[in-house]
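queue> pop job 88
queue> type: inverse folding (structure -> sequence)
queue> payload:
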């Protein structure tokens, strides 16, 4: 009887492991091969994108924000022939640094994808729209990145803050990168 239980638990563990791995593949597009995977394969693996843009040359960009629970946004770049060029995780300091005064909303959307709707806020007194993303910072800790659009002057500014989330024994939670 114990052997049957062990086989049952082993089967359950292997099944759960396979399910988790397949979910991860869909989450980030892991396993999709550049130059090989087609747009229908990308959508079958990663799901429907939150946003997409078609360029004049026929190339296409797809945004896959994985928040609020997941601190990543994946940008998928498709070549004019409909094949995958690359997938980039864009919620990082390198991409944030490209947002400069004068950047518009379309530029920000195409660069780092849409923010979480519940974290979008308009401040009437300042005529300022704020978009916010959660991400894993360079220290592998959860942080927030804000883009603030001034409706009066058109000036764009950004802010970065590390959350004061403390885990077990005062240790910040691991971000998982």
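queue> result:
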């Amino acid at each position: 009887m114990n052997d049957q239980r062990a086989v049952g638990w082993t089967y359950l563990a292997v099944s759960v492991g396979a399910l988790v791995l397949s979910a991860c593949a869909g989450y980030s597009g892991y396993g999709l091969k550049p130059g090989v995977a087609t747009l229908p394969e990308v959508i079958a693996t990663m799901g429907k994108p939150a946003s997409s843009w078609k360029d004049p040359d026929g190339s296409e960009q797809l945004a896959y924000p994985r928040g609020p629970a997941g601190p990543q946004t994946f940008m998928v770049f498709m070549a004019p022939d409909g094949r995958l060029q690359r997938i980039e995780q864009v919620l990082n300091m390198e991409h944030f640094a490209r947002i400069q005064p004068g950047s518009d909303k379309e530029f920000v959307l195409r660069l780092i994808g849409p923010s979480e709707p519940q974290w979008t806020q308009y401040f009437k007194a300042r005529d300022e729209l704020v978009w916010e993303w959660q991400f894993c910072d360079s220290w592998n800790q959860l942080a927030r990145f804000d883009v603030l659009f001034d409706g009066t002057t058109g000036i764009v500014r950004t802010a970065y803050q590390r959350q004061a989330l403390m885990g077990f024994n005062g240790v910040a939670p691991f971000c998982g990168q």
